[in-house]
Amino acid sequence: MSSGESGGRRLDVLQVLKAANAPMSIAQIADELGVHPNTVRFHLDTLLGEGRVEHAEPEHKGPGRPPLMFRSIRRMDRGGPRSYRLLAEILSIGFASDDDPGAKALAAGRAWGQRLEPPVTQEVPAGPEETIDHLVDLLDELGFAPERRDGEGEKRVGLRHCPFLELAETRTNVVCPIHLGLMQGALETWHAPVAIDRLDAFIEPDLCLAHLSLLNGAAG
Q1: pLDDT given at position 124
Q2: What is the CATH T-level fold of the domain 3-72, as seen in this structure?
């Protein structure tokens, strides 16, 4: 049996269970589809593993071992396609229609950043260099391909990749403030001795640049 035939038969098993008013046994499903019970058993094992089918208690208990009963789980198919880019586009359009989209996007990014894990477990905040290194690690995990670009007395972090590039190219006034707010929110939550002053978007075709400053009392 080809993979296409196997997948089609598995959907047949699932559809029979979805249409049933009560849990069904392997034999009942096999009779409904006109196939061997072992074929049904094989596909049920896969559907159980995918979380699309579950065991059910038999309604009537009598002498002998009752047959295994199955029913479909009433929920959306988690194996279906996703379209998060479409969702992101819809949300960016909503932000862009605001009277001050940059401020709204910045606030959203800051709220997101405030949910991220702090850099250290100690009560005393880490030093500036350690904090910046942790920020770089965090941005790397998020897919920004960051790099330290300190120079001319400035602390800077370059971003070589944008996880939302297609949106950032057309909705710079929304996406870039979200990224800025994310970094600001994370540092604020960490009680970090550094802050993000600004984010210069696409200063080179493959580079955005975040400018950092030391807060009062922080040693470089």
Answers
A1: 45
A2: Arc Repressor Mutant, subunit A (1.10.10)
